[in-house]
Amino acid sequence: MYRTHNCGELRIEDVNKEVTLCGWVQKTRDKGGMIWIDLRDRYGLTQLIFEEGETAADLIEKARNVGREFVIRCSGKVVERFSKNENVATGDIEIKPTQFEILNASQVPPFIIEDETDGGEDLRMKYRYLDLRRNPVRKNMQLRHQMLKETRNYLDGIDFIEVETPVLIKSTPEGARDFVVPSRIHHGEFYALPQSPQTFKQLLMVSGFDKYFQIVKCFRDEDLRADRQPEFTQIDCEMSFVTRDDVLNTFEGLVRHLFQEVKGIDIGDFPRMSYADAMKYYGSDKPDTRFEMKFAELNEVAQGKGFNVFDSAELVVGINAKGCGEYSRKQLDALTDFVKRPQIGAKGLVYVKCNADGSFKSSVDKFYGQDDLKEWAEKFGAEPGDLLLVLSGEKQHTRNALSELRLHMGDILGLRDKDKFSTLWVVDFPLLEWDEETNRYHAMHHPFTSPNLEDMELLDKDPGAVRANAYDMVINGTEVGGGSIRIHDKEMQKTMFRHLGFTDDEAKEQFGFLMEAFEFGAPPHGGIAFGFDRLCSLFGGSDSIRDFIAFPKNNAGRDVMINSPSTIDSDQLDELGLDLKKIEV
Amino acid sequence: MYRTHNCGELRIEDVNKEVTLCGWVQKTRDKGGMIWIDLRDRYGLTQLIFEEGETAADLIEKARNVGREFVIRCSGKVVERFSKNENVATGDIEIKPTQFEILNASQVPPFIIEDETDGGEDLRMKYRYLDLRRNPVRKNMQLRHQMLKETRNYLDGIDFIEVETPVLIKSTPEGARDFVVPSRIHHGEFYALPQSPQTFKQLLMVSGFDKYFQIVKCFRDEDLRADRQPEFTQIDCEMSFVTRDDVLNTFEGLVRHLFQEVKGIDIGDFPRMSYADAMKYYGSDKPDTRFEMKFAELNEVAQGKGFNVFDSAELVVGINAKGCGEYSRKQLDALTDFVKRPQIGAKGLVYVKCNADGSFKSSVDKFYGQDDLKEWAEKFGAEPGDLLLVLSGEKQHTRNALSELRLHMGDILGLRDKDKFSTLWVVDFPLLEWDEETNRYHAMHHPFTSPNLEDMELLDKDPGAVRANAYDMVINGTEVGGGSIRIHDKEMQKTMFRHLGFTDDEAKEQFGFLMEAFEFGAPPHGGIAFGFDRLCSLFGGSDSIRDFIAFPKNNAGRDVMINSPSTIDSDQLDELGLDLKKIEV
Predict the structure, then answer these.
(1) Can you say whether the dihedral through the CA atoms of B220, B221, B224, B229 is positive or negative?
(2) How far is the C-alpha of B226 from the C-alpha of B546, rounded, in Å?
(3) Given a cut of 80, is residue B279 above it in pLDDT?
(4) Do B81 and B15 contact (CB within 8 A), yes or no?
(5) pLDDT band (50, 70, 90) for residue B223
(6) B111 and chain A: CB distance < 8 Å anywhere?
(7) What keywords is this UniProt entry annotated with (chains A, B) (predicted)?
(8) Model pLDDT for residues B502-540, shown as the tens digit of each residue
């Protein structure tokens, strides 16, 4: 037994107890005759006090020589503090040491181990084990643990079984790129790491497991963008004998439970919105619904008045920035610059100010009279003091651009508070999407997603119009999970593979075992997968998933702490039957 | 909503309710005017009854045409059964169908989906998703789920934090062979899959996480033996500021909790035995303590009597097979054959029968008189009717052989009941073991294990005699977990690497980040890891871990269901900068 208590638990009631604590030196203050040491562990901070005349001289000498992050073991009596510290849970007491032992010394850390640190990201990644000592980072990991625990509590409580599916599986060309693992025993053959346990969870439904979940690592060898990780964690779920609403209700319940238990928030019911409406009113399939600012389409009232830009546009659409009617020339120019940035790519921005006196002032006054603009304003339900911002052009492109402008205005107007949460189901996604590069349709979700039966006749005539039994959960404009009702019929699955451009042989080669399983009584089933890292970062009020991963990789897929990936011995390559490709000069 | 109830929950109290069930056809019985269908799901079986005159004719027609494993949806009224079945939880009731729908047909399965099946192992592995439908296999997975859940409940309840460590890490030559993952972005470089999160959990201790656990997949690219899997699951744990006894008490508590919650067994306290005693009394570092049959060493009483085989032996040692004194010539010959098998390799077996009249009959009567044999018998505490079995030779080899004979006698005498559990800690393992092949010492546990400080002076003089702060948990002769108190001091770790034959550069190259971490205040720490698959199989009363893995690989490391590993496209190899080695003709 190294200690009797941790550094976070002693209170005024413990005064006069003899205790032993262990921890790290957070800081020392030496005022000559008095030395204070703040001792830190995972649970909190406790103050040690060394006083000339009161404390043994050798202990004072030792205390004087410890530095930040030294590991200490200290025994002594709990005493009431003279000046209490209300900001610390142990702030009523301190320890008068009778024993004091340095368990391990420490070099001066490369950055300060405090809530606010002076260490840059690269340095903190290299010394991640020191960064994890800082309260905010450690608390993120504790939040993650609590999320894991409450997820399991909820799902276990409604009869879900956690089943571990294999990590060494089979490579499939569909979807993103696999990481592969060469087999030493079977030269020239490879395992692949799973991008998701999709086929295994469907096989478990064929097995009659009824309700499956797993919190599981998945892998994608993609060119990394900011805040993507090659390995990530999913809450992976599947249920049998369910309709779409059964799945939505079950997992809405999961996230409601998490909000309640982890954040103490009653998040209420989740509104549902069709993909078509999400695109029409927010220009996005993951709208941030913390604020309204819905799109209003103006084709009807803005076209045919001689303004060629609008007349030739597929879509004229705008938002109402409430209360921004007094924006200056400079502010309006900044918004125009924003939408003209290459990432957004609008040609220009039309504005209409709704003046306090009921009149309007717009950038297109030449083409539109007061009555015209009044008609516009009615479309937005605009009031005096509001500012209408209007874009036009090709439909999809214009919606995307206006969606970015809407989020930007939300930021400017402080409508995107990280402590406020707005949830949403987006449903009725398209089944297929056209891929310009390969010149064929791709499954928007994945090839096992079932089509909406009402739309089946469109599958040949107008594949892009077929709706899928697919859904996403969106919180604060972030997609946190997505899933679908699956195809459970072999013939339907074959049809789908055909529409996705698989030959029968390719389908059999890649998914033969699933197709075969469907011959033996597959139940109707569906499921969902949540991006657990993202869900944690959202609950933690952060934009970065890296803050919620204990040992993340950087944007080049590298772990700079352990220096991985790295070269391996040529013997190892020989054993695997592999050569490195010669680089041609 | 596909169903109102599952197939396991309806009882006599539910009579007259209108219900809808879904499930698989377990079997049908057609007696002309009556048809019964047993409908199965994960939760149980419910009987449907179709009766001419009572049930609509079209439903009867449909019922007549369903086969085994068809997926069915059926609505109807719950009625009391005429002849009840006490062996089934729903045996008091049956359903009179008013609606009957085939959700999916099934081909005839390749083996019978019942508790006892006619399918051989290979066939069941290929159609694992059908094997998982069988009650015994499904129950194994449910047991595994419960073990996962109760492990987490216990550890969470005593402040352990579950932290996910990375799967894509760095290859290290020490220990077993790594699986590697080629990096596409950094050609010629590789990630490795973890054999255990050992270094990460030690870094988490440096980070002050205090109590860590993780239930985690680990990987070893070994030549597979029976009942080894290339990927396996560990309960991985680590604690700071602990002595050996703190660790033993904590994890004894975990396994006690599992026995209580999962099996309803109070397993009591775990005895502790030194490695030296385990070897001396059981000839094994993982003795099966479900039965006594301890070794007795006979050098003192058996040497110097002119029997050259014993006189020239390093060790003469035997066991007492209680009550086997009447064994026939044939039985004794069979035991001799057993110990002479090449895997065991004894030269011969000496026996002494303790006759009912107090006399002795031995295979070495020529050298030993009745008084000599009486002395032997006293060493064993033998009684009339017992049989002493004695081996001799080089110490380690003889102990191994006698250990095998002891287990064999335990089997013969029915002393190894799978429903009886005997637990044990084996402690004070040697720190180092000599490896004949490489002609140097290896870490018996791993290179981070701390030596017993009392033995430090032996490190140079007699390295093999140094004891480690290492321990194994043994249940019924199976090592279910092992761990150690770690080295937390950089200088000690350097000394250890030197003794293991690492140059400073090699140690730095491979473990540099851990060595560096120890510069910044590492706390004293220690931990343990449990083989979770093995623990589940032990709780489930099975010898095979494969029975407790949803989708296991075969002994050649192959998943015969999905056919993995498999070849990949040459494009994929190009992207990875790899060539398959040409096979030389």
Answers:
(1) positive
(2) 10
(3) yes
(4) no
(5) confident
(6) no
(7) Aminoacyl-tRNA synthetase, ATP-binding, Cytoplasm, Ligase, Nucleotide-binding, Protein biosynthesis
(8) 888 888 877 888 889 999 999 999 999 999 999 999 999
**Cα distances (angstroms) measured from residue A348 to each of A327, B127, B515:** 17, 61, 58
- pLDDT one-digit tens code per residue, B143-182: 999 999 999 999 999 999 999 999 999 987 667 899 999 9
Say if the Cβ atoms of A2 and B241 lie within 8 Å: yes
Average pLDDT of the residues in A286-312: 96
Question: Domain residue spans in chain A?
Answer: 12-104, 138-273+422-571, 291-412
DSSP per-residue string spanning A77-96: EEEE-SS--TTSTTTTEEEE
CB contact under 8 A, A549 and B164: yes
For residue A226, the distance in angstroms to the closest alpha carbon of chain B comes to: 16
* Residue A409 CA, distance from chain mean position: 22
B200 contacts A104? CB cut-off 8 A: no
Residue in this structure with the two tokens 């890649």, named with its chain if needed: A510
- Termini Cα distance of chain B: 64
Architecture per CATH, domain B12-104, reads as Beta Barrel (2.40)
Q: What is the mean pLDDT of residues B198-222?
A: 96
Q: Which fold has domain B291-412?
A: Gyrase A; domain 2 (3.30.1360)
pTM reported for the whole predicted model: 0.95
- A302: number of Cβ within 10 Å: 27
A341: tokens are: 């940035």
Separation in Å, CA A490 to CA A175, A508, A511, A514, B2: 21, 12, 11, 9, 20
Q: What are phi and psi of A239, to 5 degrees?
A: -135, 150
Which of A399, A227, A272 lies closest to A407 in space, CA to CA?
Answer: A399
- What ipTM score was computed for the predicted complex, to two decimals? 0.95
Asked whether residue B256 carries a pLDDT value surpassing 90, the answer given is: yes
In terms of DSSP bridges, do strands A296-297 and A315-321 run parallel, antiparallel, or are they unpaired? antiparallel
Q: Which residues of B are annotated as a binding site for ATP?
A: 220-222, 229, 479, 531-534
pLDDT of res. B582: 75
Give the architecture (CATH level 2) of A138-273+422-571.
Answer: 2-Layer Sandwich (3.30)
Rounded CA separation B543/B557 (Å): 19
State mean pLDDT over B4-22: 98
